[in-house]
Amino acid sequence: MHIAIVDSSRVVLKLVAGLLEPRGHVIEPFTDSAQALDYISAHPSITALITSLEVRPISGLELCWAARLLGDASRPLSIIVMSSSRSTHTLAEALDSGADDFIEKPPSAEELHARLRAAERLNTMQSALIRLAETDPLTGLTNRRAFMRRAHEAVADAGAGGSLAAILVDIDHFKRINDAHGHDVGDEAIKAVASLISGNGIAGRLGGEEFALLLPDRDIARALVVAERLRRRVVALRIPAEGGPVKLSCSFGVSAWRSGETVDGLLKRADIALYEAKSTGRDRVVS
Ligand code: GH3
Ligand code: MG
Ligand code: MG
Ligand code: MG
């Protein structure tokens, strides 16, 4: 595990690192709790925090809270408080402040390793749950909720001085495919389109036969090229079915992010373009 350790004493930091490093853990030691928090916040690879309560400038309990909020967002982070006080009150206070576990200072090697094994089990389970919660089971694409979260991040990144384009994709007359060839063939069509879309920027399945693609660092011209290439590839698809291979097409709505615009604004304009693509004959790209 990549572990941040916070204690005001370099001797304690050395001691704990000395116990953990031989077991393959990578240690980031901090005597300054604010620096530790900054580091953890900027490095999602940190999956455990071991902190003493008597640290500065942020107290150990406050650090637990702040780290807990980071961890709850979308990353596993186990928090272990280390204290020389064995009082029940201290233990309860630490757990109530967001810590997962408590260990006496200085820790014994055996106990520390056992607590980290327990932390690793929880982290593994949380990672699996996050993956499940963010993934569309049919296509393996990011689902709507996770896509929207990533979209907000992409807009924030673009706000820092970049470009960003959005493409909405909707399979044409999909109901007819389901009606004529059955739901299973429909599912295969959805999977085939999903697999064409994935690998181009941030791809998500928004619903039934509707997909979205965000292209960081792409302006409208580049996005139109990507959409047109996808359109051709969709037309070239052949979905195996009992009565022979099934062809399909998609309509595409493209928009480019405008400075100050929200995710909703960007996707709304792509949706208007998609609607126009539908109403003017389908199997086309409109911006
Ligand atoms: P348009 O060209 O205007 O987009 O027409 P359409 O038939 O594609 O659009 P419509 O929204 O009317 O129909 C979408 C259909 O997609 C309706 C729904 O039964 C079907 N559908 C939604 N989710 C799934 C799925 O997971 N699998 C399959 N096979 N069908 C689905
Ligand atoms: Mg529709
Ligand atoms: Mg459709
Ligand atoms: Mg649709």
From TrEMBL:
Domain GGDEF: 162-287
A Pfam family the protein falls into: GGDEF
Domain of life: Bacteria
SMART domains: GGDEF, REC
SUPFAM superfamilies: CheY-like, Nucleotide cyclase
GO cellular component: plasma membrane
Database matches in CDD domains: GGDEF (cd01949), REC (cd00156)
Any one GO molecular-function label of the UniProt entry: diguanylate cyclase activity
Gene3D superfamilies linked: 3.30.70.270, 3.40.50.2300
Enzyme Commission number(s) of this protein: 2.7.7.65
GO biological process, one term: cell adhesion involved in single-species biofilm formation
Family matches, as NCBIfam families: GGDEF
Official protein name in the record: diguanylate cyclase
Organism: Methylobacterium haplocladii
Lineage, broadest ranks: Bacteria, Pseudomonadati, Pseudomonadota, Alphaproteobacteria, Hyphomicrobiales
